[in-house]
Amino acid sequence: MSFSRSLPRTVVRSYGTVQGPPSAATLASRIPSALAEAVTATAPRTSWTKEEVAQVYNTPLNQLTYASQAVHRRFHDPSAIQMCTLMNIKTGGCSEDCSYCAQSSRHNTGLKATKMSPVDEVLEKARNAKANGSTRFCMGAAWRDMRGRKTSLKNVKAMVSGIRDMNMEVCVTLGMIDQNQAQELKEAGLTAYNHNLDTSREFYPNVITTRSYDERLKTLDHVRDAGINVCSGGILGLGESDTDRIGLLHTMSSLPKHPESFPVNALVPIPGTPLGDRKMIPFDRLLRTVATARVVMPGTIVRLAAGRIALSEEQQVACFQAGANAVFTGEKMLTTDCNGWDEDRVMFEKWGYYPMKSFEKPEPKQAQTAVPPIAEAETAAPVAAHS
Question: What Pfam families does the database record attribute to this sequence (predicted)?
Answer without folding.
Answer: BATS (PF06968), Radical_SAM (PF04055)
